[in-house]
Design goal:
Elements (H helix, E strand, L loop, with lengths): L4 H5 L6 E6 L3 H17 L2 E2 L8 E6 L4 H20 L4 E6 L5 H10 L5 E2 L8 H9 L10 E2 L5 H5 L10 E5 L1 E2 L10 H5 L3 E2 L2 H13 L4 E5 L16 H8 L7 E5 L8 H9 L6 E3 L7 H6 L6 H14 L4 E8 L6 H14 L3 E6 L17 H24 L5 E9 L4 E6 L4 E4 L10 E11 L2 E6 L2
Parallel strand pairs: 1-2, 1-3, 3-4, 4-5, 5-6, 7-10, 10-11, 12-13, 13-14, 17-19
Antiparallel strand pairs: 8-9, 15-16, 15-18, 16-17, 18-19
Helix pairs in contact: 10-12, 13-14
Bound molecules: S-adenosyl-L-homocysteine, iron/sulfur cluster and FE3-S4 cluster.
The site of FE3-S4 cluster has 12 residues, from helix 2 and helix 7.
Amino acid sequence: MHFAEIKKIINKQKPLAFVGTYGCQQNVSDSEKIKALLLRMGYSFTKEKKDADLIVFNTCAVRESAELRVLGSIGVLKTLKKRNPKLVIAVCGCMTEQNHIKKKIVDTFPFVDIVIGTNSIFSLKNLIIESSTKNHKKTINSVLQKISTRETDENLSKYREDQTSAFVPIMHGCNNFCSYCIVPYVRGRESSRDPRAIKKEIEDLVENGCKCITLLGQNVNSYGKNLDHPIDFTELLRSITEISGDYWIRFMTSHPKDITKELIDEIAVNDKICKHIHLPFQSGSNRILKKMNRHYTREKYIKIAEYAKEKIPYLSLTSDVIVGFPSETYEDFKRTLSLVKSIRFSSLFTFIYSKRKGTPAADIEDPILHQEKLKWFEELLKIQKDISGEFCSKFVGKTEKILLKEDCQKALRIAKTNQNITVHLHNLQERNIPNGFFEAKLTGHKGQTLIGTLDF
Ligand code: SAH
Ligand code: SF4
Ligand code: F3S
């Protein structure tokens, strides 16, 4: 198959594709592979679904709200398909790895042409060509494929809109089976990428001017276990940061059961590693942590967090919390609140428990009403709001190195500190300022956002 084949097939000089991405950074990274593949086929990109010849939705299944959003967005495409029967619609990503959801998409939305899973991006090219060459008088039947060959996807290149920062997956899948979580079922078993391939990708990025690289994995602390010559995450970080240049390395997500003192010590002494650890604790109650299958206790979490804060000045410690896990009582929830008050996270990602079919937690009795969980949730948000502000205030009056970059999703430029705090810059418009590192005087903060002036 030659590049730019699609132009001939659909007889259009400028075929346009819309790629919609839902979910986490892993999906953003997968969409970059999808976009590179589409670009080679001859597509250009549009941000308007109504102008597209091809629409790809890369979906997320982590909570019901994410799935409902996607199902709503697919439903709306019916009118576009009616107007343009040649429009090809593909749905891929985590949602489609669940048989009941795959069936729902096929049954409810017969105008969807292609449904594929998380590890078969490479197969999109042939499926799009197949769908584009069909008789379009009738609604096209769904092309269902289930190919799980992550190795083939591994070799796909990525199309990155932002040249200043990049996501680099270092591993795929998850082996942890936290009892509430769908990710291991839709992403498969954990496997680490070859460290040489990771380093080469980062060397190329740095050479091309990339300033901030975020290493991705569901549990980066278990990196390397399946490799022929196992190396651990700290060794990987040391090896990556041997690459010369002015750049930052971030990573996520760390799991409290596997994070090591050695890693924390490395973050403390290595200038290229950002002083930010995302360390989800999920619940402050040992009873609930056990039911969640998290393999650590509240006490162990506090010990690690205190060690990290002591070793790394100005560390930004962020976390994920689930409110209203089945069987959680207000007493359990109060343990979560007390942990939040004592650790003082710079920022928290808070979620109300969402039942995921096929996970063990879905079978635990869940008597607390949603309304009640919402009250607990709001109580937590209120407490955290002040704590986040308190963290920002530590930087007011300082001059800090900041990274100016694109936020491609929101189509605007943003500035971030080493700790990943957003800075609102007063004088950004004054000159034609390129993306990259600058010094900024931080003069104040508004909630979780710092306010500052670029120091020319
Ligand atoms: N691998 C990461 C998290 C991946 S999912 C980790 O272990 O920390 C991101 C977050 O979504 C989780 O940390 C959890 O807080 C939340 N989450 C996952 N499943 C959920 C569910 N069923 N209901 C509510 N929140 C959930
Ligand atoms: Fe889900 Fe747990 Fe794996 Fe994170 S570590 S992706 S929460 S199963
Ligand atoms: Fe969602 Fe899949 Fe990521 S379920 S959170 S897109 S791994």
